[in-house]
Amino acid sequence: MKAWLPALLRLALVVLLIAFLTNPGLFEPLLKPLTENNAPVIYNQGSLLTLTLLHLRIVLIATVAATIVAVALAILVTRPAGAEFLPLSRSLVNIGQTFPPVAVLALAVPAVGFGEKPTLIALFLYGLLPIFENALTGLTTLPANVMEAARGAGMTGWQRLVKVELPLSAPIILGGIRLSVVIGLATATIGSTVAAKTLGEVIIAGLLSNNLAFILQGGLIVAALAVLIYDGLSAVERYTARRMGREAG
Amino acid sequence: MPIRFDKLGVVIAAIAGCAAFAAPFATFRANRIVPGQARSILEALPPAAGPLLLAIVVTAALVALFKTPQQLRLAASVAALAALALLIGVAGTFLTPAGNTFARISPASGFWILIFAFTLLLADVLTRLELSPWARVGVLVAASAAVGLLLISGSWNDLSILKEYANRADSFWAEGSKHVTLALGSLLAAVIIGLPLGILCHRVERLRASVLNVLNIIQTIPSIALFGLLIAPLGWIASHVPGAAALGIRGIGTAPAFVALFLYSLLPVVANTVVGLAGVPRAANDAARGMGMTDRQRLFGVEFPLAFPVILTGIRIVLVQNIGLATIAALIGGGGFGVFVFQGVGQTAMDLVLLGAVPTVALAFAAAIILDAVIEMTSTRRREASPA
């Protein structure tokens, strides 16, 4: 009985989210008590559904780009030819994670102007680190006997990478992607302070007009998305980990 | 003997070469918001200083390019960084027309890329030297002292970021202390509440999953939304609970920012306490029990010291994260360096953004280095104290 309860909760959350995005008017009575002086209850300067899709698009583009670059870099520094870069890249990851997202965002503005671009840059840079860190961990902690066996079977370096190393590290890399997506979803809202079209627009409109209903709906949509995507990616991670016989990190 | 190239050095030399010869060194603007004009190294510096800087940059790049001893690489990177730091100030004075208070001189892309290139070199050398924790803190102190000296000596006073500072010196320090108070205060509160909560979660298994789940969900709420959502309940408390307003609890301002940072800080503290306590070897606990230690003695005498490095790692995550997140407090009137960042974004005044962003990054960076050193010290001490 306990096993299906979390699944049911998640399903309910999905249904609730879709219902809210496609027909926010239904929920008006619920949020009504949060507004004062007959202020609008549901965000009225754009469709919530469109903003949600734009929000997801920014995070998706940034995460895909970050994954490609981070995994490529991690592969590079774990080959014999790139081994010289390994210690430095580890410290760069540590240094990079101390940069606050707002600072990255604000510093990107003079370089590329307002709008989606600085947000994409900040999300990309911020997303790189967890993925790179996990890819490094995955590629450097492969079981020695498996690598030995692959070498013994006469596999070339490329074959070992594609058929052994990457599949075995996949669960750990996925863990990094999951972290970076969740950070990205929240950071994208800050992008609205530099005029990116994301759900942050709803929250900021709420902050400016002192409308709690706006803040709540913007915040809850992002939180629901983050919880669902986190759970979804965790499930994929467990599935690949089971297939690869490795514990997800 | 064949000449051997250093792979990282090739990258650094290429970056430094492009930046020194093809990118602008400084930007001149007639006032703080008009677009600027680019100036190369030779145009931005007095006749003797320009070639000197180019010579230093080229020499340091050559040292990086070939396989050279680490000490030489260290000296080259430090010399190049010092020359850049000193001469950007000279460029500021040189480019400012006499008596003109509106002109703004700021470092341009070439300067930043050169700094980046030689910081890479320095970071690589420092990583390879595998400094002890104390030495790393020492490097940090020396670097801060050097920057502090440059600031006090006034050699950077003609740069635009310091002109922005000069206009806001009082509020800079006020917002700065607010920023630090917010970040450290919420960390302290999170440790006071989070440690006992973590111990409780460790002891009572039924509680663990639900507490960690709730804290996990709080983390997914975007920071600006959480800040905003706390405005209403705190406003209500301020107007309905006697004495609350006198304590500084208000709907907008520092109170919601503090509470939001506190809530975000709980998860790393609680989760790492649980993980740290769970990682205490069974044998240690059994031995302690066998010696007749009470539960309390075991907690403070055995479990806690052994779990300490892991708990500290949680505290490091929280502190670095809080210093970054505190910038967002400015959006709800909570103050902090974010005030300058958001004002700057609003006025498209890059220098003002830098005035807020640079100290934030520096604080987060210093906090990370210091706590990393402390973590390393406590975990090596633990290893020495319990030889296998």
Largest interface: A-B, 48 and 48 residues
Q: Average pLDDT value of chain A?
A: 85
**Number of H- or I-type helical stretches of chain B:** 15
**Which superfamily, in CATH terms, is the homologous superfamily of the largest domain in chain B?**
MetI-like
CATH first level of chain A: Mainly Alpha
InterPro entries (chain B): ABC_transp_perm/SBD, MetI-like, MetI-like_sf
Membrane topology (chain B): Multi-pass membrane protein
Protein name (chain B): ABC transporter permease
Family (chain B): Belongs to the binding-protein-dependent transport system permease family.
Give a short overview.
The complex is a heterodimer of chains A (249) and B (388). Chain A is an all-alpha fold and 249 residues long.
Tell me what you see in this structure.
The complex is a heterodimer of chains A (249) and B (388). Chain A has one domain: Orthogonal Bundle (MetI-like fold), CATH 1.10.3720.10. Chain A has ten helices and no strands. Chain A has helices at 4-22, 28-31, 48-78, 86-96, 101-112, 116-140, 144-152, 157-190, 200-208, 212-244. Chain B is flat and about 75 Å long. In chain B, helix 1 (7-22) runs antiparallel to helix 3 (49-65), helix 8 (169-203) packs antiparallel against helix 9 (205-220) and helix 9 crosses helix 11. Chain B has 388 residues and is an all-alpha fold. In chain B, strand 1 (26-29) and strand 2 (37-39) form a beta hairpin. The model of chain B has no long low-confidence stretch (mean pLDDT 86). Chain B folds into two domains: 7-159, no CATH class; 169-385, MetI-like fold, CATH 1.10.3720.10. The chains are: A mainly alpha (249), B mainly alpha (388). Chains A and B meet through helix 4, helix 5, helix 8, helix 9 and helix 10 of A and helix 5, helix 9, helix 10, helix 13 and helix 14 of B. Chain A: It comes from Mesorhizobium qingshengii.
